[in-house]
């Protein structure tokens, strides 16, 4: 069950000990009621949280086989709630509802586990609402907060949690895991492990899905394509269009299913007295659902674009490494070894300062997306910055 | 009598009230030139007993003297009324002129056809459309006043007065009365109509694309006086759009047909001429730099890239102004 947690031996030991102590009649000191799981994206924060939750539910401390373990991992266990913000942020109302549910006693097991994925998306007020519940926890509640870094939650919350720090798994760790779990060949596994820079989920997608590899190739071919203004604009447009399309592929099935569920909950198609009157509120409910779905689509689009930006960042990281001579003397391996020719070409045609400027531009574009700048404008500014990194600096 | 045209019958078609009024007035003026005593009689084609009243109004009076009979709402009248108008026109003496007002459009189409067969004069007063129609109207007004006005002055005037035809007409006539020089300048217009403005982000963008930095700033300031907060995002969006269109035109492959170019730039074909003119004022480097500025500006309007970069409303206004000026003059 802990297998999915790639290269996190230290964390596994701490969590395993906690699960053992938790199972005792009077829980031992290794167990506590609030945990903060931090680590770079894809290092397995939510996987760790889920595995830990399963270990708490399982009579054998996490066998991975019993009904409890299996239902936790499938996300259907009654006493384990996994909360993931579908919109851009967690709203205060979401946090309130969560605090209320936390005070309910567990129905089957000993603990009521609440997993907050992406707790960095908590707004400040939502943070404060949670603080109270974490400070004075209901007796059976266990909070598992997942964020990229400890700075992402309020210091007051941080100080009440035990901290589990996940590290970036090494390419070898990831590749070994891929060979084992996905039964892909060693070459593909190593490529995916390198290219994903320690993001296990991304490595999986790259190892498994030709479409994902194709998207990546498209993104990485952008630097070479930015030869004139027109190409800058068309590349930006293509990036946004691809992100939209990919986001739609993810959200549209969800949207349709949720709407169907909602309609049947409101008794659509049912006949008889009283039913019609009851169905009157359905319009409002649908509208509310659509607002939430739209927010989710926006977020998914942004996430898709951000991933493309990360790929680009990796490209220029390789360029920089090559310019420093680190890839020729073998001290640093290229993330994008398969793009070596292009990387060398870009590296030879520019200097390290320009590369740093380009890396800056990518970071700026990521921040811009986060700040809700119109995606296409942000990508246009990025492609222009990439083509002429000096433009912003030379203009008076 | 069918098929013959009666000079005494004038048909005014269309819904633009100001133009209709002018058409009627011109008939009355013409008649009064011949006979200053000419009387104007207004009738409504939908009122009761109208047929009799038409007869009455069109027949010569005991004491002589001419008349202009104006019949409104012909589009909603009975056929018998139209027949009465045609008959009255055929029999009318030289001293009587009849003006029939028809709103145009689909309503009373048959009546319109009948009347236009009989009418000796027809004046069309088609409603003036927003945008191009308005600026053409202003040009025509200026020309009628025997003056000239720069496009820049025109756009300020339209921005200030809005798209109400009557208001524009009176604004032009006021300017023509008060300003002695033949050419009415942008400064004259803003002196007279400065305070009251209905500025859109689009107009600001247009001024920037024409490289009229001072005009863009003036529009922006005028707008800030009324509702600057609303205008920030709209201006960024309009500017971005305009830059994209210019880029599309400026980087289009040589020899592309107008139609393809319009599709490529995502603009209606009539906009190409303006775009081509504007494109001459922008180098590719300027356009690239414009996008960089706009990206930063959009982030500024939306709370900044990093923590602590959030701008106060006043600072947002200043950021917008400085971006507009540096874009227009870069």
Total number of beta strands of chain A: 5
CATH architecture of the largest domain in chain A: 3-Layer(aba) Sandwich
CATH topology of the largest domain in chain B: Zinc Finger, Delta Prime, domain 3
Largest sheet of chain B, if any?
A: 5 strands, parallel
Known CATH architecture of the largest domain in chain B: Up-down Bundle
What's the rounded overall pLDDT mean of chain A? 87
Distance between the termini of chain A: 59 Å
Order of helices and strands of chain A: HEHHEHEHEHEHHHHHHHHHHHH
Query: How far apart are the termini of chain B?
Result: 71 Å
Q: Greatest interface and its residue counts?
A: A-B, 24 and 25 residues
Overall structural class of chain A, as computed from helix and strand content, comes to alpha/beta
Shape, principal axes of CA atoms of chain B = elongated
The name CATH uses for the topology of the largest domain in chain A is Rossmann fold
* Beta-strand residue fraction of chain A: 5-15%
DSSP summary: helix tally of chain A:
18
CATH superfamily of the largest domain in chain A: P-loop containing nucleotide triphosphate hydrolases
For the record, the CATH class of the largest domain in chain A is: Alpha Beta
What shape does the CA trace of chain A take?
A: globular
Structural class of chain B: alpha/beta
In short:
Chain A contains 18 helices and five strands.
Kindly list the characteristics that best describe this protein:
heterodimer; A: 396 residues; alpha/beta; Rossmann fold; 3 domains; 18 helices; globular; B: 330 residues; Helicase, Ruva Protein, domain 3; Zinc Finger, Delta Prime, domain 3; two-stranded parallel ribbon; 7 strands
Task: Give a verbal description of the structure.
Chain A is of the alpha/beta class and 396 residues long. Chain A contains 18 helices and five strands. Chain A folds into three domains: 157 residues, P-loop containing nucleotide triphosphate hydrolases (Rossmann fold, 3-Layer(aba) Sandwich); 55 residues; 127 residues, no CATH class. In chain A, α12 packs antiparallel against α17. Chain B has three domains: 119 residues, P-loop containing nucleotide triphosphate hydrolases (Rossmann fold), CATH 3.40.50; 70 residues, Helicase, Ruva Protein, domain 3 (Orthogonal Bundle), CATH 1.10.8.60; 132 residues, Zinc Finger, Delta Prime, domain 3 (Up-down Bundle). The model of chain B has no long low-confidence stretch (mean pLDDT 84). In chain B, α2 packs parallel to α3, α9 crosses α10 and α10 crosses α11. Chain B has 14 helices and seven strands. Chain B has 330 residues and is α/β, with parallel strands linked by helices. The radius of gyration of chain B is 27 Å and the shape is elongated.
